[in-house]
Amino acid sequence: MMVKRIILLLLVLAPFQLLAQNFLTGNIYDNDNRATSIEGAAIKNLTTKAFTLADKDGHFAITAKIGDLVSFGMAGFQTDTVYLTNLFPKNIYLRIAVNDLKTVDINGVKVSPMLSGLGNPDNKPPVKQLDYSKERGGLRLNLGYGKWRKENLKIQELEENDRIQQEITKNFNAEAVKELLKFEGPDVKDFLSLYRPTVDQVKAEKPFNYSYYIATAYRAWLKLPVDQRKLPPLPKLKGN
Question: For residue 5, what pLDDT is reported?
C-alpha cells in the first residue's frame, strides 16, 4: 500500500518537476542599491528568442535550458548577459549606464581645402582653380581635392579598423570567456585563436554582441574533433 502511494505521489509531482526544469526564475535589482528591484526589466532568451518582463517586485520567469544565453536589460542600465550552466534561481544586478562625453580636439580637426580660404579673403582655395591661358586651350579644373579626399577616407578606414581590433581584444579574451562560460585552462588560448571575430564581422553587426558570439562559438568549438580545436601550426620557412 505504501509503495502505491509513493508511485502515485511521483506521478503527480513529475509534470511539475519537468516544468520547473524548463524555466529560469529570479529577481532583478539595481546594483548600486541592491534593495531596489527593477520593475519592467526585459529578459530575453537569445537562444530561443523567448521574451518576458520583470514584475513590480523585479521577479521574472522565462523558458530556458542549460546552455542557453539570456540577457537582462532596462533603459538607463547596462545590459547583462548570462550563459546558463544551471537553472537555479538567479539574482541579477544591473549597473547604471554612464555616457562618457569625449573631448573634441579642435586643433586636430582636418579642414577641407575648399573651406580653408573662408577665414581670410586674401587666401584662395587651393583646389578647383580656373586657368584661362590660351595655351591650355580653355578652362582647366584642379582635381587635387578628389585625390586628397580618397587618401583621407583611406586613413579614416585604417583608423576605424585599428579601433575595432582594440575593441575585439577588449571583449574577446580569456577573462571574458571565463566569466561567461566558466571555461579556462590551456584550451582557452586555442579557442580564442580559432574563433577571434574579424573586423568585417564586427562592422556587419552594430552593436556587436560579444556575449552571444562567444557562446555560439563555444558550442561550435565543442562539436569539433579534439585534433581540430586549434589552428594548424605555421609552416617552417626553408633556409636560404
Answer: 57
Instruction: State whether residue 45 is helix, strand or coil.
Output: strand
Q: Are strands 42-45 and 80-83 parallel, antiparallel or unpaired?
A: unpaired
Cell numbers 574533433: residue:
225
Cα–Cα distance for residue pair 43/25, rounded to 1 Å: 11
What is the rounded distance in angstroms from the CA atom of residue 117 to the CA atom of residue 126? 8
Q: For helices 174-181 and 187-195, give the axis angle rounded to 10 degrees.
A: 110
Going across the sheet that includes 23-30, the strands are: 59-63, 23-30, 90-94
Q: What is the pLDDT of residues 30-44, one digit of tens each?
A: 999 888 999 999 999
pTM for this prediction: 0.50
Higher-pLDDT residue of 211, 106: 211
Torsion on CA atoms 114, 115, 116, 120, rounded to nearest 10: 130
How far is the C-alpha of 147 from the C-alpha of 143, rounded, in Å? 7
Look at strands 42-45 and 51-53 and give their pairing: antiparallel
Q: Where are the alpha helices (DSSP H) in 54-186?
A: 144-171, 174-181
* C-alpha cell at position 43: 529578459
Residues 55, 50: Cα–Cα separation, whole Å = 16
What residues form DSSP beta bridges with 59? 27
Runs of H (alpha helix) within the chain = 2-21, 144-171, 174-181, 187-195, 199-204, 210-223
Cis peptide before 207 (omega within 30 of 0): yes
- Give yes or no for a contact between 76 and 38, defined as CB atoms under 8 angstroms apart: no
